[in-house]
Design goal:
alpha/beta; FAD/NAD(P)-binding domain; 3 domains
């Protein structure tokens, strides 16, 4: 016998579980289906982000940075560490504990908000009277009927042709987070967010890391000035980064992985690695969703086709997050989830793609929102720029990390902030001020006139805003 709900959410990642909770807050009867399993086979909601993405990677980034600090930077603070050693299994265990805490937190939130949770794989069975029949394949097969369906099935790692992931030698983000011993030689294909973050983790722990990037430019989506600074800092740290490479072949053996490629000058090269992380993007996850059963429209990438409000071609069927157009970011999925729940309730959900922040959690961190300088030039927009280095910031000196800068881009006529770009310590936290400012269409003068606490890293934001009019006070 089918169970009836106002809203059924397929997928319990950041977009899905947030959509379910918001819909329940608005008074709907809600079910959320998710198939992730923990080591014991129990439910592990949170999707890629919680289980093999954002959360575990940040746990390892923090642990590996602590290890590197203890080995290199603590001495400057008068802290002498003798007999430093790495317990990798403890580090991985801590990472797993952090993941489980987040899994359990989501289950608690479902219970608190009266969201019915079904552990299994959700798919469309057929259109039904009053909505859609959703099959749940799990330990106990279930049948649900939903008036509204929100699809939040996320994405999967893209594999290199002819080199499928085995998560032993050739690794996706999943395997990269669970290497049992520090590899002597680690190869990374793709110098994007995942490649740089995972490369940084294992370099800090002792691996010799080589990053192979197919594009001729480093971090092409990042403001060019910030990207150049990042390239300089990462290579100084020890990441060997090659740009403009073309992969010819990837060969796996019991001992490791061989990558044959041509460099940016057309010279044939060969890399021998113990492990290879492939981070060349992600593909929408619609496999097994039963799209054909109801006629749900997909695009040429396999993504679900939606309009600006996340409506699919089917009435009362919505899709959000990585499985639709737009940036594959957890917080973008969350915002779409809230917006869709509110639209179902007849409200006006809000998602502004122009003010979605981006972060790369390396050291230093890179964060930005809005337009880059190269985008403004290409669009012919007249702008003013202001930068301020953390080298001149008192709190950064006290931290012992003065790398990087804050950069403001503002309209030349109206002074409206068009983009803010940060490379430096805690950039992920500092960028929020810029997001708020841009949502309210603030000017650089507005930020320049706001009192910031002293001493704080946020003073660099104020100083960069002042620098737009060439009146920085501390540089």
């Amino acid at each position: 016998m089918s169970k009836n709900f106002d809203v059924v959410v397929i997928g319990g990642g950041p977009g899905g579980y947030i959509a379910a909770i918001r819909a329940a807050q608005l008074g709907f009867s809600v079910a959320c289906i998710d198939e992730w399993k923990n080591e014991k086979g129990g439910p592990a909601p949170g999707g890629t982000c919680t289980n093999v993405g954002c959360i575990p990677s940040k746990a390892l980034l923090q642990s590996s940075e602590n290890y590197e600090m203890a080995g290199h930077a603590f001495a400057d603070h008068g802290i002498e560490v003798k007999g430093l050693s790495l317990n990798l299994q403890q580090m991985l265990g801590r990472k797993n504990t952090v993941v489980k805490q987040n899994n359990d937190g989501i289950l608690f939130l479902f219970k608190k908000n009266k969201v019915s949770f079904f552990h299994g794989r959700g798919s469309f069975a057929k259109a039904a009277e009053g909505g859609y029949e959703i099959a749940v394949a799990g330990a106990a097969n279930e049948s649900l009927v939903a008036k509204h369906v929100i699809i939040a099935t996320g994405s999967n790692a893209r594999a290199l042709p002819g080199a499928p992931f085995d998560e032993e030698r050739i690794l996706s983000n999943t395997g990269a987070l669970a290497i049992g011993e520090v590899p002597k030689r680690l190869g990374v294909i793709g110098a994007g967010v995942i490649g740089l973050e995972m490369g940084s983790v294992w370099r800090r722990l002792g691996a010799e890391v080589t990053v192979l990037e197919g594009l001729p430019t480093f971090l092409g989506a990042v403001d060019e000035q910030i990207a150049k600074e990042a390239y300089k800092l990462f290579t100084k740290q020890g990441l060997a980064i090659s740009l403009g490479v073309k992969i010819a072949s990837v060969t796996k053996s019991d001992k490791g992985v061989t990558v044959e490629y041509t460099d940016d000058k057309g010279n044939a090269q060969k890399g021998e690695f113990d492990r290879l992380i492939v981070s060349i993007g992600r593909v929408p996850n619609t496999i097994g969703l039963g799209t054909d059963a109801v006629g749900l429209k997909l695009d040429e990438r396999g993504a679900i086709v939606v309009d600006d409000e996340c409506r699919t071609n089917l009435p009362n069927v919505w899709a959000i997050g990585d499985v639709v157009r737009g940036p594959m970011l957890a917080h973008k999925a969350e915002e779409e989830g809230v917006a869709v729940a509110e639209r179902i309730a007849g409200q006006h959900g809000h998602v502004n793609f122009n003010t979605i922040p981006w972060v790369i959690y390396t050291s230093p961190e890179i964060a930005w929102v809005g337009k880059t300088e190269q985008q403004l030039k290409a669009e012919g927009v007249a702008y003013k720029a202001g930068t301020f280095p953390f080298l001149a910031n008192g709190r950064a000196r006290a931290f012992g990390d003065t790398t990087g800068m804050v950069k403001f881009l503002a309209d030349a006529k109206t002074d409206e902030i068009l983009g803010v770009h940060i490379i430096g310590h805690m950039a992920s936290e500092l960028i929020s001020e810029a997001v708020v400012a841009m949502e309210f269409r603030a000017s650089s003068e507005d930020i320049a006139r706001i009192c910031h606490a002293h001493p704080s890293l946020s003073e660099a934001t104020k100083e960069a805003a002042l620098a737009v009019e060439k009146r920085s006070l501390n540089f």
